[in-house]
Design a protein that fits this description.
The chain has about 200 residues and is an alpha+beta fold. The chain is about 30% helix and about 35% strand. The chain has one domain (about 10-195): Pnp Oxidase, Chain A. The chain starts with 7 loop residues before the first helix and ends with a strand.
Amino acid sequence: MLDKNKEPFLLFDEWFSLAKKKELNDPNAMNLATISEDNKPHSRMVLLKDHSADGFIFYTNTESNKGIQISQNNNVALCFHWKSLQRQIRIEGSVKKVDDSTADSYFNSRGYMSRIGALSSKQSSILKSRSELEALIEDFKKKYPDENNVPRPKYWTGFLVTPIKIEFWQDMPHRIHDRLVFEKLDNSKWKSQKLFP
């Protein structure tokens, strides 16, 4: 059973470590929900690239739909679901850009073609044909043939989600699940409570 006296980030670390051993594909995959300017929810899968007691970091194109929505409303939600573990973690909070040095460091750790892809993709824009994207990729490969010298585009960066609520869900027999929610108080301490399934 979930221990309500445990620190939420420590519990996250335990569950995430287990997911990395058990989940077949992308244990760091998480659903990111944003809100558009007309108050409609949008969600998609992104990859968690770093986490700490400060929050959860993912990277994206700021000119994409999610990037634009984040600039309009910085309230977001994340959801991890690990089917192999029958566990889920929901996170609510606010998001802000990471600093340039953090973004540069992660961008430079990516493979050459992933960096070229970030330069080539006009993410979320209409693509008339696959050949249009392939031509852009070839152009950037010619422009940056040195695999160690591909600049991070200014529109590509990381985002840190600072949580105010983290809910842990564990599947249990007969759908009488175990749920534990942590909510951040004004003094930055966490209050934990069990929830009915």
